[in-house]
Every structure is written in C-alpha cells, then in structure tokens.
Amino acid sequence: MLSGCGSSKPAYCTARSNLTNSIKGLTSLPQGGGVSGLQTQFKKIQSDATSVVNSAKGDFPNETAAIKSSVDGLSSALKSLPSNPSASQIAAIAPAATNVVNSVKSFSSATSSKCS
After folding, report:
1. How far is the C-alpha of 105 from the C-alpha of 98, rounded, in Å?
2. Which of 10, 17, 58, 63 is deepest in the core (most CB within 10 A)?
3. Mind listing the pLDDT tens digit for each residue in 41-73?
4. What does R_g of the chain's alpha carbons equal in angstroms?
5. CA–CA separation, 63 and 57 (whole Å)
6. Contacts from 22-31 at CB under 8 Å and sequence distance 24+?
7. CA pair distance 43, 72, nearest whole angstrom
8. What is the pLDDT of residues 16-46, one digit of tens each?
9. Based on the number of CB atoms within 10 Å of its own CB, is 10 exposed (0-12), middle (13-18) or buried (19 or more)?
C-alpha cells in the first residue's frame, strides 16, 4: 500500500471534492436568489462535474457516465423553468437534482479508497 504518500492521489480526488462542495452550495443559496441563483450554482456544478468526468472516466466509466447523465438531466430541467416559477415547478426539478446527488455519492464511494 501507499501509506504516507498522500500527495499521490489521483487528480479526480480534487475534482470530486470541488463537485461535492458545489452541490452543497445548492442548499445554502440565499433566499430570493430565485432561478438565476440556482442557475449560477448549477453552472459551477456543471463545470466541476465535467472536471470529474474528464479526469476519472478511464478509471470509473460507469460512475462518470452516471454523473454526466444526471447533470444533463438537471440541465434540461432547469432550462424548462420559467423566469418566475411556481413552487410546484421548482419542486419538479427535485428528482433531477436528487439524481445528481446520488450519482456523485456513488462516484465518491467508488473512489473512496483512492482519495482518502
């Protein structure tokens, strides 16, 4: 094993950490930020997800494909929101957001031995 070699972590470990933090940022959006705040945070998630996929797809093709698919699904859901959505319209994107969270959790589990 590589005990004591913490600097030899794969590049996707940092990308994974950034993506996890971006997702956590969704829960701390300011009140009144509306759709634009959500879209701004999603752009960060999308960028971080792309970094994860690009850096880890060779080692974790299934997990990175799931991240890409779930982020694409959330992107479509967000694009369908009107500029002043109702609560039910916002609630309709929750399943897509949950898919992103679950795909990132699966990736984190799969990479935990490499990134811890």
Report:
1. 10
2. 63
3. 899 999 999 999 999 999 999 999 999 999 999
4. 16
5. 8
6. 22/48, 23/100, 23/101, 23/104, 26/97
7. 11
8. 999 999 999 877 766 666 778 888 889 999 9
9. middle
Q: Any idea how long the chain is?
A: 116
Please give the DSSP secondary-structure letter assigned to residue 8: G
Residues whose CB falls within 8 Å of the CB of residue 41, separated by 6 or more in sequence, listed in order: 22, 25, 26, 29
pTM over 0.90? The answer is no
Q: How far apart (Å, rounded) are the C-alpha atoms in residues 75 and 59?
A: 25
Q: Where are the domains of the chain?
A: 12-23+36-115
Say which amino acid occupies 69.
S
